[in-house]
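Everyone, describe these structure tokens:
***
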Amino acid sequence: MSIVALTVSRENLTARVYAQLRESLMAGRFWPGQRLRIREMALAMGVSQTPVREAIMQLVREGGLEMRSSAAITVAKLSVARYKQLREVRLLLEGLATETATPLLTPHDIQRLETLHARLIKAEKDDDREAATLTNFQFHFTIYRGSQLSDLVEILDSIWLRNGPLLKFLYPHAAPSYRGRHQHLVLLDALRRRDAAAAKRAIQDDILEGGARLVDLMERIEAGAVRVVENDAGESSLVFPPRRRKAAAS
């Protein structure tokens, strides 16, 4: 086999490993701050350590992973303050992408959005957490890519990658909730009417309203009211304070 063929083969393998790791981050399969070991990941994926190392370095550059040394690679861990800063950027840029996409989306695009929203609701009812988070990503980025603003979509994609590990906290403790109708339905109505201003408001309301419980949970974790603990097998979970018993009636 030629050197060129070897290079192409390794690049393709690295790309596949990168795609797997990226999807895992976006689906909330890793905990924020979780340590990753290249050797263990290579064994789990059935590949050598080289493509795993190369994929990890790419994700470090994109902000999804952090590396303090060659032996200390961790999943990105955002503070509440940092999350809120990125949320302000999202409100502006996702609002712009949605506003721009509204007159450009085809009936087929809108039908796909309806299908994705239905899948999201079903995944939540079935407690399929990874499917719910990935489907929500697909729903949003069907709209953003519809804006045809490729540079803007690339920026949003990198922001969602940094937020990805936080999605581990969503289900079942901080699932998106809405005071009225689901904001995706409000958004779909606006897209059908080609009402760009209403669509922009709906996507921004979805970011704020749908993520309110997540922010609350993150604040409780930072305050120490909720703890993230790891067992001997390296699996993490949230530990909530015991509920206070109601005083017996006299």
